[in-house]
Amino acid sequence: MTKYHGKGIVLWVEDGPSGGSNGTYNISASVNSVDVPRTADEVDVTTFGAGDFRSYLAGFQNATMRIAGFFDDTGAAAPGTANTAGTASGADAVLAAWIAFGTQTRKVIFYPSGTATGKIRYEGTCIPLGYSLNGAVANAVSFTSDLRVTGALTRYTNA
């Protein structure tokens, strides 16, 4: 079984509404944690004659993303304007602008083991649920952002 160190994680976020002619920002230099919990609803189908045990069917799937890292105010193009794919930018410029336009969906691409050929990536269209800056005298300024995947979170192999 191959294992991967988290230092190879890459995270890209589209810079405008999903489906437009947008670029993608690599915000990995600002991020130090990505959590992608996936769940499935359960539907209780227990009948009167089932005895002492319940029966279930799998329901709809759900995925969220929690991104955390350090505040980086490196500039980015205005939301919705074209950008060169893969351009690095500070997470604040991308995520704070996204929250300001909260009804827009954007593509997020998560590479848990890097971007090399043959590595796995996950792609999904997300809506922002929140963006929080955290600062204290004795600590670096940090952020967290919660995203809701709308539709499928798809697993691909890099070509």
The second-level CATH architecture is: Beta Barrel
Radius of gyration: 19 Å
Tally the beta strands: 10
Residue share in β-strands:
35-45%
Mean pLDDT: 84
Cα separation of the termini: 21 Å
Can you walk me through this structure?
By secondary structure, the protein is mainly beta. The chain has a single domain, classed as Elongation Factor Tu (Ef-tu), domain 3 (Beta Barrel). The chain contains 1 helix and 10 strands; from the N terminus they run ββββββαββββ. A hairpin with an 8-residue loop joins strand 7 and strand 8. The longest helix is centred in the middle third of the chain and has 10 residues. It is globular. About 6% of the residues have low confidence.
Task: Summarize the helices and strands and which ones pair or pack.
Layout lengths: L9 E5 L9 E3 L4 E5 L2 E7 L11 E15 L16 E2 L2 H10 L5 E6 L8 E15 L7 E8 L4 E4 L2
Parallel strand pairs: 2-6
Antiparallel strand pairs: 1-2, 1-7, 3-5, 4-5, 5-9, 7-8, 8-9, 8-10
